[in-house]
Amino acid sequence: MPAHPPRRALNRQVLADYVHEELMASLIDGRLEAGASLSIDGIARDLEVSPTPVREALARLEHTGMVRRIALKGYRVAPLFTPLELSQLVDARLVIEPVNAELACARSTPELFDELQHTIEQLRTAPTGASYAEFRDYWKADEDFHRLIAEHAGNPFILNAYKTLGGQVQRFRFFAGLGVTDADTAIEEHTAILKAFAAGNPAAAREAMIAHLNGVKERSILDSVEHP
After folding, report:
1. Which of 193, 89, 195, 198 lies closest to 150, judged by CA?
2. What is the CATH number of domain 12-77?
Protein backbone atom coordinates (compact mmCIF):
# COMPACT_ATOMS: atom_id res chain seq x y z
CA MET A 1 0.00 0.00 0.00
CA PRO A 2 1.29 3.51 -0.79
CA ALA A 3 2.70 5.75 1.92
CA HIS A 4 0.41 8.46 3.22
CA PRO A 5 0.95 11.62 5.26
CA PRO A 6 0.96 11.17 9.05
CA ARG A 7 -2.52 11.08 10.56
CA ARG A 8 -1.59 11.21 14.25
CA ALA A 9 -3.33 14.53 14.86
CA LEU A 10 -6.72 13.07 14.01
CA ASN A 11 -9.00 11.47 16.60
CA ARG A 12 -9.38 7.70 16.78
CA GLN A 13 -12.76 7.48 15.03
CA VAL A 14 -11.58 9.64 12.15
CA LEU A 15 -8.45 7.49 11.87
CA ALA A 16 -10.50 4.29 11.87
CA ASP A 17 -12.73 5.71 9.12
CA TYR A 18 -9.68 6.72 7.12
CA VAL A 19 -8.10 3.27 7.44
CA HIS A 20 -11.43 1.64 6.58
CA GLU A 21 -11.69 3.67 3.36
CA GLU A 22 -8.10 2.90 2.37
CA LEU A 23 -8.58 -0.82 2.95
CA MET A 24 -11.97 -0.85 1.23
CA ALA A 25 -10.45 0.73 -1.88
CA SER A 26 -7.61 -1.79 -1.90
CA LEU A 27 -10.00 -4.72 -1.42
CA ILE A 28 -12.52 -3.72 -4.07
CA ASP A 29 -9.93 -2.66 -6.63
CA GLY A 30 -8.03 -5.92 -6.14
CA ARG A 31 -4.78 -4.47 -4.79
CA LEU A 32 -5.25 -6.81 -1.84
CA GLU A 33 -5.74 -10.24 -3.35
CA ALA A 34 -8.07 -12.94 -2.07
CA GLY A 35 -6.38 -15.04 0.58
CA ALA A 36 -3.67 -12.49 1.33
CA SER A 37 -2.67 -12.08 4.97
CA LEU A 38 -3.38 -8.68 6.50
CA SER A 39 -0.74 -7.56 8.96
CA ILE A 40 -2.11 -5.07 11.46
CA ASP A 41 1.34 -3.71 12.19
CA GLY A 42 2.25 -3.60 8.51
CA ILE A 43 -0.91 -1.69 7.57
CA ALA A 44 -0.34 0.68 10.49
CA ARG A 45 3.17 1.42 9.22
CA ASP A 46 2.01 1.94 5.64
CA LEU A 47 -0.72 4.36 6.67
CA GLU A 48 1.33 5.94 9.46
CA VAL A 49 -1.23 5.28 12.17
CA SER A 50 -1.24 3.22 15.35
CA PRO A 51 -2.49 -0.41 15.28
CA THR A 52 -5.71 0.52 17.12
CA PRO A 53 -7.61 2.15 14.20
CA VAL A 54 -6.41 -0.67 11.94
CA ARG A 55 -7.95 -3.26 14.28
CA GLU A 56 -11.20 -1.27 14.38
CA ALA A 57 -11.32 -0.96 10.59
CA LEU A 58 -10.66 -4.66 10.09
CA ALA A 59 -13.40 -5.57 12.58
CA ARG A 60 -15.84 -3.45 10.56
CA LEU A 61 -14.74 -5.08 7.32
CA GLU A 62 -15.15 -8.53 8.87
CA HIS A 63 -18.86 -7.80 9.33
CA THR A 64 -19.17 -7.14 5.58
CA GLY A 65 -17.48 -10.45 4.72
CA MET A 66 -14.65 -8.63 2.94
CA VAL A 67 -12.04 -10.01 5.35
CA ARG A 68 -11.99 -13.03 7.61
CA ARG A 69 -10.42 -13.49 11.02
CA ILE A 70 -8.74 -16.85 11.45
CA ALA A 71 -7.91 -18.08 14.95
CA LEU A 72 -4.22 -17.65 15.82
CA LYS A 73 -3.51 -16.39 12.29
CA GLY A 74 -5.14 -12.97 12.18
CA TYR A 75 -7.01 -11.45 9.27
CA ARG A 76 -7.00 -12.55 5.64
CA VAL A 77 -8.70 -11.19 2.54
CA ALA A 78 -11.88 -13.18 1.92
CA PRO A 79 -12.32 -14.96 -1.42
CA LEU A 80 -14.35 -13.24 -4.10
CA PHE A 81 -17.97 -14.31 -4.29
CA THR A 82 -18.86 -16.75 -7.04
CA PRO A 83 -21.93 -15.97 -9.18
CA LEU A 84 -23.84 -18.59 -7.16
CA GLU A 85 -22.88 -16.99 -3.85
CA LEU A 86 -23.85 -13.58 -5.15
CA SER A 87 -27.24 -14.97 -6.15
CA GLN A 88 -27.62 -16.54 -2.70
CA LEU A 89 -26.77 -13.19 -1.09
CA VAL A 90 -29.61 -11.52 -2.96
CA ASP A 91 -31.92 -14.40 -1.98
CA ALA A 92 -31.06 -13.71 1.66
CA ARG A 93 -31.78 -10.02 1.17
CA LEU A 94 -35.15 -11.00 -0.35
CA VAL A 95 -36.04 -12.64 2.96
CA ILE A 96 -35.25 -9.52 4.98
CA GLU A 97 -35.57 -6.32 2.97
CA PRO A 98 -39.16 -6.56 1.71
CA VAL A 99 -40.23 -6.89 5.36
CA ASN A 100 -38.09 -3.87 6.21
CA ALA A 101 -39.74 -1.86 3.43
CA GLU A 102 -43.24 -2.80 4.55
CA LEU A 103 -42.57 -2.01 8.22
CA ALA A 104 -40.69 1.21 7.52
CA CYS A 105 -43.41 2.43 5.17
CA ALA A 106 -46.02 1.85 7.86
CA ARG A 107 -43.93 3.94 10.27
CA SER A 108 -42.70 6.50 7.76
CA THR A 109 -42.24 10.16 8.59
CA PRO A 110 -41.67 13.21 6.38
CA GLU A 111 -38.06 13.21 7.60
CA LEU A 112 -37.50 9.63 6.46
CA PHE A 113 -39.11 10.34 3.10
CA ASP A 114 -36.80 13.34 2.59
CA GLU A 115 -33.74 11.29 3.51
CA LEU A 116 -34.68 8.52 1.09
CA GLN A 117 -35.35 11.04 -1.65
CA HIS A 118 -31.94 12.60 -1.01
CA THR A 119 -30.20 9.26 -1.54
CA ILE A 120 -31.89 8.92 -4.93
CA GLU A 121 -30.75 12.42 -5.88
CA GLN A 122 -27.23 11.40 -4.90
CA LEU A 123 -27.47 8.28 -7.10
CA ARG A 124 -28.41 10.46 -10.07
CA THR A 125 -25.35 12.69 -9.72
CA ALA A 126 -22.72 10.21 -8.48
CA PRO A 127 -19.97 8.93 -10.80
CA THR A 128 -20.26 5.29 -11.87
CA GLY A 129 -16.75 4.50 -13.11
CA ALA A 130 -14.79 1.29 -12.81
CA SER A 131 -12.69 1.91 -9.69
CA TYR A 132 -13.81 2.22 -6.08
CA ALA A 133 -12.86 5.90 -6.07
CA GLU A 134 -15.15 6.43 -9.07
CA PHE A 135 -18.22 4.55 -7.81
CA ARG A 136 -17.80 5.04 -4.04
CA ASP A 137 -20.38 7.83 -3.76
CA TYR A 138 -22.89 5.84 -5.82
CA TRP A 139 -22.40 2.73 -3.68
CA LYS A 140 -22.73 4.73 -0.45
CA ALA A 141 -25.96 6.38 -1.64
CA ASP A 142 -27.30 2.94 -2.57
CA GLU A 143 -26.28 1.57 0.82
CA ASP A 144 -27.83 4.56 2.61
CA PHE A 145 -31.19 3.98 0.90
CA HIS A 146 -31.41 0.37 2.08
CA ARG A 147 -29.89 1.11 5.49
CA LEU A 148 -32.37 3.92 6.23
CA ILE A 149 -35.28 1.61 5.47
CA ALA A 150 -33.79 -1.12 7.68
CA GLU A 151 -33.16 1.29 10.54
CA HIS A 152 -36.72 2.63 10.44
CA ALA A 153 -38.44 -0.77 10.31
CA GLY A 154 -38.60 -0.78 14.10
CA ASN A 155 -37.34 -4.34 14.60
CA PRO A 156 -33.81 -4.58 16.05
CA PHE A 157 -33.56 -8.30 15.35
CA ILE A 158 -34.28 -7.86 11.65
CA LEU A 159 -31.90 -4.90 11.59
CA ASN A 160 -29.10 -7.07 13.00
CA ALA A 161 -29.83 -9.75 10.40
CA TYR A 162 -29.70 -7.10 7.67
CA LYS A 163 -26.35 -5.81 8.90
CA THR A 164 -24.74 -9.26 8.80
CA LEU A 165 -25.38 -9.53 5.06
CA GLY A 166 -22.92 -6.78 4.14
CA GLY A 167 -25.45 -5.01 1.95
CA GLN A 168 -24.29 -4.24 -1.58
CA VAL A 169 -20.56 -4.21 -0.97
CA GLN A 170 -19.97 -7.79 -2.11
CA ARG A 171 -21.79 -7.10 -5.36
CA PHE A 172 -19.64 -4.07 -6.06
CA ARG A 173 -16.51 -6.03 -5.19
CA PHE A 174 -17.54 -8.78 -7.59
CA PHE A 175 -18.00 -6.34 -10.46
CA ALA A 176 -15.10 -3.99 -9.71
CA GLY A 177 -13.52 -3.07 -13.01
CA LEU A 178 -16.87 -2.87 -14.79
CA GLY A 179 -18.29 0.16 -13.06
CA VAL A 180 -21.98 0.51 -12.25
CA THR A 181 -23.81 -1.10 -15.14
CA ASP A 182 -27.40 -0.67 -13.98
CA ALA A 183 -27.61 2.84 -12.52
CA ASP A 184 -30.65 4.02 -14.52
CA THR A 185 -32.67 0.90 -13.77
CA ALA A 186 -31.70 0.85 -10.09
CA ILE A 187 -32.71 4.50 -9.70
CA GLU A 188 -36.11 3.74 -11.26
CA GLU A 189 -36.57 0.85 -8.82
CA HIS A 190 -35.60 2.96 -5.81
CA THR A 191 -38.02 5.62 -7.02
CA ALA A 192 -40.83 3.04 -7.19
CA ILE A 193 -40.16 2.15 -3.55
CA LEU A 194 -40.18 5.82 -2.62
CA LYS A 195 -43.51 6.33 -4.38
CA ALA A 196 -45.00 3.59 -2.21
CA PHE A 197 -43.73 5.47 0.85
CA ALA A 198 -45.26 8.68 -0.49
CA ALA A 199 -48.60 6.91 -0.94
CA GLY A 200 -48.44 5.37 2.54
CA ASN A 201 -48.86 1.90 1.02
CA PRO A 202 -46.76 -0.69 2.95
CA ALA A 203 -47.84 -3.58 0.71
CA ALA A 204 -46.74 -1.67 -2.38
CA ALA A 205 -43.41 -0.84 -0.70
CA ARG A 206 -42.86 -4.54 -0.04
CA GLU A 207 -43.64 -5.49 -3.64
CA ALA A 208 -41.45 -2.70 -5.02
CA MET A 209 -38.54 -3.89 -2.89
CA ILE A 210 -39.05 -7.46 -4.13
CA ALA A 211 -39.04 -6.22 -7.72
CA HIS A 212 -35.88 -4.22 -7.08
CA LEU A 213 -33.94 -7.08 -5.51
CA ASN A 214 -35.06 -9.51 -8.20
CA GLY A 215 -33.84 -6.98 -10.74
CA VAL A 216 -30.49 -6.74 -8.96
CA LYS A 217 -30.21 -10.52 -9.02
CA GLU A 218 -31.06 -10.82 -12.71
CA ARG A 219 -28.66 -8.06 -13.72
CA SER A 220 -25.87 -9.52 -11.60
CA ILE A 221 -26.27 -12.93 -13.24
CA LEU A 222 -26.29 -11.29 -16.67
CA ASP A 223 -23.14 -9.34 -15.89
CA SER A 224 -21.39 -12.49 -14.64
CA VAL A 225 -22.18 -14.21 -17.96
CA GLU A 226 -21.09 -11.29 -20.10
CA HIS A 227 -17.97 -10.55 -18.02
CA PRO A 228 -16.83 -13.89 -16.54
Report:
1. 193
2. 1.10.10.10
